[in-house]
Amino acid sequence: MHEKHLRIFVLILTLGISVSASGEEKHAVAAVGETLFSNAALFSVSRFVADTDFTRVSPDTMWTNMTSPWQFDQSQFQTNQIGHPYQGSTYFAAGRTNGFNFYESIAFAPLGSVTWEFFCERSTPGMNDLITTTMGGASLGEIFHRLYLETSPKNPVAAVFISPIDAFDDAVRRSPPEPTGGKITAATLSAGLGFVHAREAVGSGGPEGADDPYVARNPGGAVAFALVYGDPFANDSNTPFDHFDLDLRLVGAFPWYGATLWTDGYLMSRAIADGPSRNATAGLSLHYDFVMLKDLQISGTSIDATTKQRWQTSFGSLSLQAHAGVLGFGSANFYPEGNGDTRYKQISTRDYGSGLHAKLRLEADFGKAGAAELSTACFAMLTYPDVVRDSGGAVLCAVTNAAYSIPVAKALSVELRDEFSWQAGMYDEASDVAMRANEATVGVKIRLK
User: Fold this and answer.
1) Which end of the chain is more exposed for a tag (fewer CB within 10 A), N or C?
2) CA-CA distance, 158 to 224, in Å (whole number)?
3) CATH of the structural domain 186-447, one choice from 1.10.357, 2.40.128, 3.30.70, 1.10.8
């Protein structure tokens, strides 16, 4: 087993150095160097600035990591499901900024992840970290790389924060990127105040039937940012992420909180309708989604069949975006803190699994009369057995948004929004768990582009 791990590491290292290294515009050595530099920079901050315990490494811990079986770790949800994908995006960017295409650049993420797990942490290497860093890193990495190219010519300071590795490479080479021609087709910023009502409980009776359920009823606020890159309804391309959508929403209602990130990018697409009243595309898309409410957490990478369609009518425009496919690797909370089941108070609280994934988004723009939006995202995940004691079973989750905005100025609207989230864990041995949250806000929506 130990020799097998070493062979895997050497194979990944060799792959990272050699993959598609031919061609004058591809700089494999520089890409590998920037991948390792990303690890060195993060390690230095974590070890010498933050003084974290997990970075107190030694030759003994490195050897132990290289010769130990990989496991599914139980780090904090945000660390595993946002921290590692973001870390993976820097490895991916090292490939993209050095001339490698989307698929070739994916190889640099496992290279960076394996070297981090072996040499930069005391913890036993996490298989979930390797998978999420690679798969989530590809989605976020391509998005950040393209947004860097859009932003850098006009605002190089902001571009540094979008993709630090792209910025580092351009600074070293003294070769700023060429303008990409303004491929961001829409961007909005929203903010509002409102109210949150959340419940969670253990037991087959659900939140209403369980003893002593957790309940939150708090005033709060929310901010959101949405961006569309490329034309979703006329994209005919084999180049990954020529079109993508990104939606980020943050909610605070102390002590309740919430954060959601939805992304999808076409891996390939075909225009299936291109007329005066209907435009439509269909293809294959890659998603990285992240939902972290106080007691409702799920995240994962999915590959879906997708169609995006728009109709022009006498009263305005209608659009539909539909995705359905496979949740390749996901993570969800097992038993939230304080749920009343004392058997699980001191053990890990993270499930991992695979399953099905779907999204649906409907929009209607009535011009001066306003615009309506209805969207839902659904997960059905079968959990891997024995990751957490008694956690074998299934997790179901749905997040639905309904909104209506009324324009009051050229780029400003008043927006009413309601978000309802629901999650259920149904387990073979442990008690079932059910959680739901509803967040309603009234605010403003600013059209940035």
Assistant:
1) N
2) 18
3) 2.40.128
